[in-house]
Amino acid sequence: QICLSLVKLLFYLAHSPLGSIVLLDFQPRQFVMVDGNLKVTDMDDASTEELSCKEDNDCTLDFPTKSFPLKCSVVGKCEGINEKKNLFNAYRYFFTYLLPHSAPPALRPLLSDILNATGDLRYGINETLRAFEKVLHLYKSGLYLQKRPLLLKDYISLKGFRTVEGEDYKCWPSYSHLGCLLSIHSAEEAAAICNSQSQCQSFIVTQQRTWTGRPLASFQSSWTDLIPDTNAVVYIKRSASSGERL
């Protein structure tokens, strides 16, 4: 969410009515999240000036660990230097820390491609935004899910119930520090996740949604202490419930 919002912001800056705008003091502390969108808190160090040049050799974009040769345009300006400076700063301050860690396994190669392409400035802001929107579409639609055996049949579902909240086993990347709370596309995906975790014996799907509209599921190591909740469905492994009365 943070990276996509940043890319949308940089896309606007690259195509603003004032021309391409560069953020000269590009640091994480210069941004804040407002209603799920990244905003710049200080525009004092923004500029529409692009480096003047006489030849291509005048257009080297330098960073502490990398340098990029750019073209000198016919009007004597380094082509795309403001856009590329913003994009590489987004890569080194945001993408490298946030992109590799929390996506479903099937989407990680696509995010790795974005990471590598922006780190080498092979993508401009237009290509970067399209790549992010493609990943978002796959994520929201569930098209990233690979065909696999149907596992939900191995679970008993109880509508209108959930387990008592409490600290349970933890997983990554959980929305809660007290247990294993993950976003899912469907109960079928939740069943696959539960089967992949040795501690998991049940999971609860509620009406809570993430910013992409995906429901949240809580994965738990037991299924006892059920309480009524009209907005929830608890799924219990048949193997865990054998010998017990529901």
Automatic annotation (TrEMBL):
GO terms for molecular function: non-membrane spanning protein tyrosine kinase activity. Pfam families: PIP49_C. InterPro entries: FAM69_kinase_dom, PKDCC. Transmembrane segments: none annotated. GO terms for cellular component: extracellular region. GO terms for biological process: skeletal system development. This is PKDCC kinase. It comes from Picathartes gymnocephalus.
